[in-house]
User: Fold this.
Amino acid sequence: MTIDEIFNRLHKLQDVLAEKIALEKKIQSIPKVLEDRESLLVRLKKTYIEQYQDYEDLRTQQAGCRNQLLEAESKREKAEKNMEATTTQREYEIIDKEIRDASEKEHQCRKELQHVERRLAEIDEKVKANKTLIDEQEGELAEQKRNIEAERVEEEKKIAALTADANKLSEGLDEELLFKFERIIRKKGSRGIVAVRGGVCESCHMILPVQFANNVRRKEKIVSCPYCSSFLFYEDVSDGETSFLDEEIGSLASLDDDEEQDEEELDEEDTVNIDDEE
Ligand SMILES: [Zn+2]
Assistant:
């Protein structure tokens, strides 16, 4: 395979890989999307349970108030009946006090009952509103899950097709080169092979050492940018643009693009990885 053929393959391959990687990332991000929605639902349900507990407590209070009210009413009525049968001043005073106490109790119970019922109405509204919200959220979540599942099936089919394309394009290419290439695309999100124009790497925009840029132009082997690790191919600048190759901005020995760089080194775009090979 000539170097031009390799470049040609890499260009096609990077499009296929970029699309495949984007789809894989999309699928990976699905659980997070659903997680946020599910945790919202959990919060709503927790609030609902608390509100419902308050509602039940108030219902108990309401029943208690009603009982006390009935009790006070019957006490008062009974005393009023007894009053009809009083004969002495002493009896009258005792029963009169019973009636007044019972009336006072009745009044208090009515007031308390009113208060409890107002709170019940408020909380009832809140419980209902929350229930509506929960039902809506559950419905939307279920629909979202169905849509995501349908999309995922399609995306996985696409990924399988893209993988087949990538395998075909990779045939005959060096494995280590392919490994590095895919890693760069994963890291950058799109391009693994970029142009050197006017002595500048089009990915990281660093000015490359003249000798190094000349190596790219000579196309003797595949070389990686010493700053960003992108694979490089040479592109002529049009008239009017400055070529750094024409200027003497430094002279460096050849760069070792075979050396394995780890992820951290890939991060450091201003790191120059230069070995003397002479
Ligand atoms: Zn670069």
